[in-house]
Design goal:
alpha/beta, Aldehyde Dehydrogenase, Chain A, domain 1, 6-stranded mixed sheet, about 40% helix
């Protein structure tokens, strides 16, 4: 059984608390790591603070070289990291490879952004008091960053905290999910060889009681959390004076208008609804289709969903596999059964087998059902017809969440209206809301979060503006 040591203050360590890591598909332990103690966390904090000034004064070239080294080394070990990610998360290998390649790009983009950190010169003579003066605005690293990453993208969503922190010149302590800590602990071996100061990065799986210090300790100047809305907003309430960035959940809407290309819309909607068993915060959960094409879309959609290949995530042909654990699969089962009891119909799927829940499509749903109103985070979509475009925009907006939405249309006026009126952080035209590339601003409104990820935007959050006024 492979052992993965913790990365604490630039040292690889073991602790007394063993953490067994289980493959969600086989439900068997295949590797072990450790849980960090409060003492380990304190060591990591102190070491990070020791190198904080060195990080702050690090040249753009040195940051660029370190981030580029990590990106290049990660790409060279693509197969190893993809297989490790698939084993710990149950994510099909085709998607695991995609996630590692995205992580390669995230480090690469961060390397580029480290060479163009924000700064400006502004004239101050807009008022009489400013006559003869100008200002030089420079941005400085905010300080020690706390990162907490989820199980569903165990590598890339962790990298979206590590890479911008390093580009900004901030040390960071990352708490990965205890379900999926291994890919980031393997990444630590690359970080350790990158030339960064020892202590610039620590990667520490922790229990919730220990990890809560990342939230409450005022030595951390920014908390970046990706996870559930309930936990995220609770953390914000406990975080004190530190800056907080939250990337939380959603129940993304997808609208298919009568001008859409049906073949493309169906193909994208299937991927958007069922990639990684729907365990994606921007998965297409609520699909609305123009009444004129609803029956055709439904027939084509169900046909494609039923073709999805179920199997071992390590098989290249597998498209859908186990959920992260049985408790989440049981939760989905309960929510779907509740919807059925309240009048919804299952037209595809609807059954559970251990950690696996079938790709499921529901019709005749009501907005207040859990499968509509809450974040399903599983392989379930609702499919409903609409007759009025402006009314369906309001229906998508009738939600506590607002992360991303997708619109399939070939009419400019519908694109413009959707962009102006949808209460979300991103509107995706002619693709599913699951679309994301790693340099775009990404985040939500309402209960879906606070602030933005995407390298340039995350770096901005991790820096503070300071002005020098000269006469």
């Amino acid at each position: 059984m492979e052992e993965f040591k913790l990365y604490c203050g630039g040292e690889f360590i073991t602790t007394e608390k063993i953490l067994d890591v289980e493959n969600p598909f086989s439900q068997k332990v295949f590797a072990k790591t450790y849980l960090a103690s409060k003492e380990n966390l304190e060591t990591a904090i102190n070491k990070a603070l020791e190198v904080q000034d060195e990080m702050k004064n690090m040249s753009s070239l040195r940051k660029y070289e370190a981030l580029s080294y990590i990106s290049k080394s990660l790409k060279e070990q693509l197969t190893y990291f993809a297989e490790l990610l698939a084993l710990e998360s149950g994510k099909p290998i085709i998607y695991s490879k995609g996630e590692i390649l995205r992580s390669v790009e995230t480090f690469k983009i961060a390397a580029e952004e480290s060479k163009r950190l924000p700064g400006e010169v502004i004239s101050l003579d807009w008022t009489p008091a400013g006559k003869g003066k100008h200002g030089i605005v420079q941005y400085f690293p905010i300080g020690l960053v706390a990162g907490i990453s989820p199980f569903n993208f165990p590598m890339n969503l962790a990298v979206h905290k590590i890479a911008p922190a390093l580009a900004a010149g901030c040390p960071i302590i990352l708490k990965p999910s205890t379900n999926t800590p291994l890919s980031t602990l393997a990444l630590a071996k690359l970080i350790d060889k990158s030339g960064l100061p020892k202590g610039a990065v620590s990667i520490l799986p922790m229990d919730r009681a220990t990890g809560n210090q990342l939230v409450t300790d005022e030595r951390f100047k920014l908390l970046s959390f990706t996870g559930s809305p309930h936990v995220g907003w609770m953390m914000k309430a406990q975080s004190g004076k530190k800056k907080v960035v939250l990337e939380l959940g959603g129940n993304a809407g997808l609208i298919v208008t009568k001008s859409a290309d049906l073949d493309i819309a169906v193909k994208k909607a299937v991927i958007g609804g069922f990639a990684y068993s729907g365990q994606v915060c921007i998965h297409a959960q609520r699909i609305y289709v123009a009444k004129e094409i609803f029956e055709d879309f439904k027939t084509m959609f169900i046909k494609q969903v039923e073709k999805l290949n179920l199997g071992d995530p390590m098989d290249d042909n597998t498209e859908i596999s186990a959920m992260i654990d049985e408790s989440n699969a049981k939760r989905i089962e309960i929510w779907v059964n509740e919807a059925i009891e309240d009048g919804a119909q299952v037209i595809c799927g609807g059954k559970r087998d251990g950690t696996y829940y079938e790709p499921t499509v529901l019709i005749d749903t009501k907005p207040k059902m859990k499968v509509c109103a809450l974040e399903v985070f599983g392989p379930v979509v609702t499919l409903e017809p609409f007759t009025n475009f402006k009314a369906v925009i309001k229906e998508v907006n009738d939600s506590d969440f607002g992360l991303q939405a997708g619109i399939f249309t070939n009419q400019i006026d519908e694109m413009d209206y959707a962009f102006n009126e949808l209460e979300v952080g991103g509107v995706i035209i002619n693709d599913a809301p699951i679309f994301r590339v790693d340099h775009m601003p990404y985040g939500g409104v309402k209960d879906s979060g606070l602030g933005r990820e995407g390298l340039k935007y995350a770096i901005q959050d991790m820096m503070e503006a300071k002005i020098l006024v000269r006469g």
